[in-house]
Amino acid sequence: MQRVFEALSSTVRRKILALLSDGNELTAGAIADEFAISKPAVSQHLSVLENAGLVERDKRGQYVHYRLVEANLANTLNGYLQEVCPVSRGIRKNRQRKGD
């Protein structure tokens, strides 16, 4: 449980979870494109989320795809909070406008 709280303590990681909500599955590059930080920094954030059991990855050829671990209680609670959180609504609207 400590790893989950540490993972959720970062705004960037919470935004990554918002991007992956609603069953979205995104490549590491697509996730990195949403942030004004380096790709290695995003990769580190994804590793923290994976180690906490909040996301899982699937390597397909040269791309790594990330998705939420649906059975995780923290993700269930996060999904609920995303419905009432103004920040995550904006993130999801931006993604929809981009056609992703």
TrEMBL record:
Q: Which residues form the signal peptide?
A: none
Keywords attached to this Swiss-Prot or TrEMBL record, sorted alphabetically, are:
DNA-binding, Transcription, Transcription regulation
**Residue span, HTH arsR-type domain:** 1-88
Which SMART domains is this protein grouped with?
HTH_ARSR
Q: Which Pfam families match?
A: HTH_5
Gene3D superfamilies found in the cross-reference section: Winged helix-like DNA-binding domain superfamily/Winged helix DNA-binding domain
Q: What is this protein called?
A: ArsR family transcriptional regulator
